[in-house]
UniProtKB/TrEMBL annotation:
NAD(+) binds at T149, T150, T151, G214, D215, V216, G217, K218, G219, E235, N339, H346. This is Adenosylhomocysteinase. Keywords: Hydrolase, NAD, One-carbon metabolism. InterPro entries: Adenosylhomocyst_ase-like_sf, Adenosylhomocysteinase-like, Ado_hCys_hydrolase_NAD-bd, NAD(P)-bd_dom_sf, S-Ado-L-homoCys_hydrolase_CS. Its cofactor is NAD(+). Its EC number is 3.13.2.1. It catalyses: S-adenosyl-L-homocysteine + H2O = L-homocysteine + adenosine. Residues 183-345 form the S-adenosyl-L-homocysteine hydrolase NAD binding domain. Coiled coil: none annotated. SUPFAM superfamilies: Formate/glycerate dehydrogenase catalytic domain-like, NAD(P)-binding Rossmann-fold domains. One of its GO terms (cellular component) is cytosol. GO terms for molecular function: adenosylhomocysteinase activity.
Length: 425
């Protein structure tokens, strides 16, 4: 819930949607944006005429799930007919709700589920007690979901592979004009913004470790190199690791460099990348943060339980953790998306590119849902190119036009699409 998503909401409303909104992260709400959306352009604080928003900066996790359920609970019993998701928590809540409605009972815990999923189960237990068919009704009314980010998309493909996806989905993340722009150039802006606002430390000359060299990792590494940091990359994928090496970064394991890093940032979308043991071995006042979607990249729970550890809150979203030997580490946004928690996320221009894809995907699934199965789809390349064309124009770039002969020679249409599906950009 940021100023950028406020404009996305206005766009959806202008297209005729009735919208309810919540945040996908407990720290990323910009309260002024939330307030403006609630009041609306024609309302007043006393008489709001905008969109219901269930989000504020600094929610607790129980409040977060409460807000997600509220968002999905339409007045009058009508459910939503579309979800626009970021990270997949709304989609997850509906799927879990249906699963346990069918089972007739919500278990106390799920095997192998993250600790905080206990809160989903609690939310569901309460909602199922009030209305035992609620989530089945919600799922039946849904024409589809459009998913914003890598982590949410992963969950959708897992559901589809298991034959459990309850409605069609469009993977917005893998539009080229989303992941190759927002994930990369967006983070190139907002990562250093978050570190600066959180710590104001001089980045030049420092050793910065970026865990993961996917789209977000590439932008993160560039971001810190741009400030003069000596950047080291960790990767599990030899292709991305080789890319990092050829882009001029040192490639090491975290174990090799953990004791000499000044800044460590995770960008993997994976769990347990930085353990409490790593944290204990960090240098005095190492800055530790995450920009992957969920906070489980850093073992904050393990840090909290570390024998003799003490937490000193420096300011909102900045904590210094003091180890028994006296050395400390500085953790940003409790391990949650620091570019949103400590700063204001990606700037509008790059989000415009992402959200153009979101809006196109919403319109597509809403108007043509009968043409889609319970699978995960991507938008056609032609629309991806359209989003790029519009944004290039806005930047004042001039695009070269193919001649008919050139187009025939490379076997494409003069108007595009210009690349095959397997082209990687
Ligand atoms: P990606 O899949 O392109 O990159 C992740 C990289 O991490 C991969 O190259 C993978 O091989 C590597 N990796 C996985 N486990 C690792 C480990 N244990 N150690 C080192 N490297 C490891 O994904 P992408 O698009 O870069 O997204 C990463 C995360 O960032 C996702 O959770 C995504 O949802 C999130 N995201 C966050 C944004 C933000 O504003 N903070 C914006 C866009 C995405």
């Amino acid at each position: 819930m940021t100023v950028q998503t406020a404009v996305l909401i206005e766009t959806l409303v202008a297209l005729g949607a009735e919208v309810r909104w919540c945040s996908c992260n407990i720290f990323s709400t910009q309260d002024h944006a939330a307030a403006a959306v609630v009041v609306g352009p024609h309302g007043t604080p006393e008489e709001p005429k905008g969109v219901p928003v269930y989000a504020w900066k600094g929610e607790t996790l129980p409040e977060y799930w409460w807000a997600t359920e509220k968002m999905l609970t339409w007045p009058g019993g009508e459910g939503p007919n579309m979800i626009l998701d970021d990270g997949g928590d709304a989609t997850l809540l509906v799927h879990k709700g249906v699963q346990y409605e069918k089972a007739g009972v919500v278990p106390d815990a799920e095997d192998d589920a993250p600790e905080e999923w206990a809160l989903i189960l609690e939310t569901l237990r309460a909602s199922l007690a009030a209305d035992s068919g609620k989530w089945t009704k919600v799922a039946e009314g849904l024409r589809g979901v459009t998913e914003e980010t890598t982590t949410g998309v992963l969950r959708l493909y897992q559901l589809a592979a298991a034959g459990e996806l309850l409605f069609p989905a469009i993977n917005v993340n893998d539009s080229v004009t989303k992941s190759k722009f927002d994930n990369r150039y967006g983070i190139r802006h907002s990562l250093v913004d978050g570190i600066n606002r959180g710590t104001d430390v001089l980045i030049a000359g420092k050793v910065a470790v970026i865990c993961g060299y996917g789209d977000v990792g590439k932008g993160s590494a560039e971001s810190l190199r741009g400030q003069g940091a000596r950047v080291v990359v960790t990767e599990i994928d030899p292709i991305c690791a080789l890319q990092a090496a050829m882009d001029g970064y040192e490639v090491r394991t975290l174990d090799e460099v953990v004791g000499k890093a000044d800044i460590i940032i995770t960008t993997t979308g994976n769990k347990d990348v930085v353990t409490a043991d790593h944290m204990a071995r960090m240098k005095h006042q190492t800055i530790l943060g995450n920009v992957g979607h969920f906070d489980n990249e850093l073992d904050i729970a393990g840090l909290t339980r570390y024998p003799g550890i003490r937490r000193v809150n420096i300011k909102p979203q900045v904590d210094e953790w003091v180890f028994p030997d006296g050395h400390t580490i500085i953790v940003l946004s409790e391990g949650r998306l620091l570019n949103l928690g400590n700063a204001t996320g990606h700037p509008s221009f790059v989000m415009s590119s992402s959200f153009s894809n979101q809006v196109i995907a919403q319109v597509e699934l809403f108007t043509k849902h009968q043409e889609y199965d319970r699978e995960v789809y991507r938008l056609p390349k032609k629309l991806d190119e359209k989003v790029a064309r519009i944004h290039l124009e806005a930047l004042g770039g001039s695009l070269t036009k193919l001649t008919k002969e050139q187009a025939e020679y490379i076997d494409v249409d003069v108007e595009g699409p210009f690349k095959s599906e397997h082209y990687r950009y």
